[in-house]
Amino acid sequence: MYAQMVETGVDAVRTAADMGGDERAFQARIDADIRIEPKDWMPEAYRKTLIRQMSQHAHSEIVGMLPEGNWITRAPTLKRKAILMAKVQDEGGHGLYLYSAAETLGVSRDAMTADLLSGKAKYSSIFNYPTLTWADIGAIGWLVDGAAIMNQIPLCRCSFGPYARAMVRICKEESFHQRQGYDIMLSLARGTPGQKAMAQDALDRWWWPSLMMFGPSDAESVHSAQSAAWKIKLLSNDELRQRYVDQTVPQADHLGITMPDPDLAWNADRGHYDFGAIDWAEFHAVVRGNGPCNRDRLATRVKAWEDGGWVRDAAMAHADRRAARAAAAAA
Ligand code: BYC
After folding, report:
1. Which residue out of 280, 287, 297 has the highest number of ligand 1 atoms within 8 Å of its CB and is therefore the one to mutate?
2. Residues 219-246: pLDDT tens digits?
3. Contact 195, 112 (CB under 8 A)
4. In this model, does residue 85 exceed pLDDT 50?
5. Does any ligand 1 atom lie closer than 6 A to the CB of residue 124?
6. Which residues of 162-172 are buried (b: 16+ CB within 10 A; e: fewer)?
7. Rg, C-alpha atoms of the chain
8. What is the pLDDT of residue 277?
9. Would you say the CB of residue 284 lies under 6 angstroms from ligand 1?
10. Which of 6, 18, 123, 207 could make a disulfide contact with 60, Cβ separation 3.0–4.6 Å?
11. Residue 60 Cα: closest atom of ligand 1
12. Distance from the CA of 58 to the center of ligand 1, in angstroms?
């Protein structure tokens, strides 16, 4: 089993035989649903897995601000603009909670940022697609935040305390985001034929990438088995994807628009919707950096980092002066 996993690149799941005393006690706590906190002993691989997932998650929130930020200046009404600004700001906040939660594992914010800007760290594939029309803002809220909630509600019960706690607030905000997106879609779907066509076009372009957000199929997922054993993942990629399809199809029906999938059909025996094959070649191309907007997204983040250099320098100079004054006063 282990050899096979190494050959296929799948993480080997640790068994009791592989574990020393500390690790057995750690796994027993996980099995008993006791949260792990930053100062508790933890296996190095658990720490690394969390840093990988949490930092990717934080990067996704920060990069996720870009496709929607693109429409702030062009929102159709003042009210829609105010709502969109608040949403994009929330995403920035989510990134910051998640970076802080990851820092409790001993990694610095600078190191995580450097990995994002160098292209070493991943972020969600979904943010490498362009927002071509206002309907895309509706589709992102409805579909992308909808997928995010489906994936993140279970994370509120994951084994690592700071991650689980950060997710509680994030999920509440995502739920508002999802509703605002659906509200945009509803207005368009009930609008002129041209507006309804715009809503349909956005669904056509965002549906398949949103299914890809859940990651590779369970058979291909490298980290799932070990992450499930550690209760970082409570539901598998395919389970979450299926729940998402089941939840979202009736919402599209209510809008009166059509899912771009001829194979989509209710399967009464399974009690779930069957759906068509995902284009995994597209997913892998996007994750490897060759999606429609990967280069643009990264270039924008790098520029923002460089343009913000003077702010960081000023903040550091101020902190240094205050520290020097405090030291002088204490002497
Ligand atoms: N895109 O073994 P697997 C948001 C990678 S933010 C890119 O299944 P795992 C929002 C995966 O990282 C949404 N890469 O991995 C923000 C791994 O590569 P590495 C972000 C992906 O970790 C603003 C490899 O493929 N949500 O919603 O067990 C506005 C093998 O995959 C993707 C989170 O980050 C992808 N879609 O499971 C609006 C949630 N999928 O690391 C909305 C937290 C997989 O070995 N993360 N990969 O190089 C998770 O739940 C899990 O990390 C995943 C993947 C389910 C995503």
Report:
1. 287
2. 999 999 999 999 999 999 999 999 999 9
3. no
4. yes
5. yes
6. bbbebbeebbe
7. 22
8. 98
9. no
10. 123
11. 6
12. 11
The predicted pLDDT at position 82 comes to 97
Helices and strands (H and E) in the chain: how many: 15, 2
Determine the pLDDT at residue 25. 95
| 198 and 134 Cβ atoms separated by less than 8 Å | yes
Task: Report whether 234 contacts 158 (CB < 8 A).
Answer: yes
The reply to whether ligand 1 has any atom less than 6 angstroms from the CB of 242 is: no
Question: Dihedrals φ, ψ of 213, to 5°?
Answer: -55, -30
Closest to 160 (Cα-Cα) out of 34, 276, 294: 34
Confidence at residue 317, expressed as pLDDT on a 0 to 100 scale: 94
Query: Is the Cβ atom of 180 under 6 angstroms away from ligand 1?
Result: no
Looking at the DSSP bridge assignments, the partners of residue 274 are 265
Q: What's the pLDDT at 19? A: 79
In the predicted structure, residue 250 carries a pLDDT above the cut 50 = yes
Confidence of residue 10 (pLDDT cuts 50, 70, 90): low
Any atom of ligand 1 within 6 Å of the Cβ of 285? no
Query: What pTM did the predictor assign?
Result: 0.93
Q: For residue 12, what pLDDT band results from cuts at 50, 70 and 90?
A: confident
Q: 267 - beta bridge partners?
A: 272
Dihedral over alpha carbons 171, 118, 295, 69 (to 10 degrees) = 40
In angstroms, rounded to a whole number, what is the distance separating the alpha carbons of residues 64 and 143? Answer: 13
- Model confidence pLDDT, tens digit, residues 195-209: 999 999 999 999 999
**202: nearest Cα among 257, 244, 241, 128:** 257
Q: Residue 232 corresponds to which tokens in the numbers above?
A: 């970082």
